[in-house]
Amino acid sequence: MLQIHSFVFNPLQENTYVLADETKECVIIDPGCYDAEERYELADLIETNGLTVKMLLNTHCHVDHVLGNAFVKETYRTKLYIHPTETAVLQSVKVYAPHYGIFQYAEAEPDAFFQEGENLVFGNQQLQVLFVPGHSPGHVAFYHAAQKVLIGGDVLFRNSIGRTDLPGGNFDTLIHSIHEKLFTLADDVTVYPGHGPETTIGYEKRTNPFVGVSSPRP
């Protein structure tokens, strides 16, 4: 059974996820841990639960989602996987990070790439890669069909959506991604976003003012 552990890291309040199961294998998604205390929090979870890190995954490569990439790679000797279209986004972080007040960013290069529709396997679990650009050009989400869980990054939030004014962002593309890739999932799929609380596909269909497709229930 999939177990979901989450942290809120760095000044931008980014959600980092560790997915594990009964085999003790896990994946780390979007490690935003920046300072020593945050790195300790993540490492303590791994050690306390006796987990083995099989993969490091980025939904996308904006600064707040990649601050812990180097730490995870070096500590757990694991590979970093991103969508190939995000390569330039990742490489640009070292240039603009100081503008966010981040002066100790440790760069980490990707080791491998995933593509739309690919299944990523760890333990007894499978995550399907969904290509959902718009917030960034190579943004993906990870769908766990067996438990109806979506790790969505910065595409769809509770009653909001990802911003599209950053380089490579596009509003129309984002809306298309949400309607064609996310809103085609079942209403009871739980969405774990890159910021803020979890939500469900059905709730966002009914209430999200940016992309809602039906009237709110009375």
From TrEMBL:
<dbReference type="InterPro" id="IPR001279">
    <property type="entry name" value="Metallo-B-lactamas"/>
</dbReference>
<protein>
    <submittedName>
        <fullName>MBL fold metallo-hydrolase</fullName>
    </submittedName>
</protein>
<dbReference type="GO" id="GO:0016787">
    <property type="term" value="F:hydrolase activity"/>
</dbReference>
<dbReference type="InterPro" id="IPR036866">
    <property type="entry name" value="RibonucZ/Hydroxyglut_hydro"/>
</dbReference>
<dbReference type="InterPro" id="IPR051453">
    <property type="entry name" value="MBL_Glyoxalase_II"/>
</dbReference>
<keyword id="KW-0862">Zinc</keyword>
<dbReference type="Pfam" id="PF00753">
    <property type="entry name" value="Lactamase_B"/>
</dbReference>
<keyword id="KW-0378">Hydrolase</keyword>
<keyword id="KW-0479">Metal-binding</keyword>
<dbReference type="GO" id="GO:0046872">
    <property type="term" value="F:metal ion binding"/>
</dbReference>
<feature type="domain" description="Metallo-beta-lactamase">
    <location>
        <begin position="13"/>
        <end position="195"/>
    </location>
</feature>
